[in-house]
Design brief:
There is one protein chain. With 154 residues, the protein is an alpha+beta fold. The longest helix has 9 residues. The protein is globular. The protein binds flavin-adenine dinucleotide (FAD). Flavin-adenine dinucleotide binds next to strand 3, strand 5 and helix 3.
Length: 154
Amino acid sequence: MDDRQFRSAMGKFATGVTVITTEVDGEVHGMTANAFMSVSLEPKLVVISIGEKARILNKIKESKIFSVNILAADQKELSMIFAGQLKEHREVEFDCLDGKPVLSGVVAQIACEVSAEHLEGDHTLFIGKVTDIHLEDSEPLVFYSGRYRSLLEE
Ligand code: FAD
């Protein structure tokens, strides 16, 4: 089994797309991520997985907070901005939920405090205790087999 085959297999798991946001010294940093899942209902916990090379890794370690922003179907450009896939820098406005930075127009904003972190291989898993949630009634952006999709596709 080589790296390409592993990546291809993992890409067969259709997911939504999130932008993880955090804030250090008043500066907001975001990163596109699809390694996100719900962990527990009581207490309410989620998990995200951040690669060792991602700049946001140390920022979350320092701030001990993050938000998960589940992108809407029309927010592919935001995903590309926060995945470093666009050449030029774009200004992005942030809102606030429970004192944590969030993006507007997303399907769901989930504000979290880090309750645990686990280094596993080349990624760090952050367990987030959910402190607040805001929901919108819109369709999500979908990622499957390395491509952005929409549930509205024919
Ligand atoms: P940087 O390279 O520092 O930032 C990424 C981009 O966001 C840069 O272009 C930067 O300009 C922009 N940006 C950051 N903050 C702001 C701001 N305040 N205003 C405007 N622009 C800003 N990686 C993982 O580790 N885990 C995952 O689960 C994961 N899932 C992914 C899913 C998808 C669909 C894609 C496309 C990528 C995924 N990645 C994941 C890869 C990850 O998004 C990229 O490797 C990312 O560029 C690394 O982030 P970084 O913290 O080093 O950010």
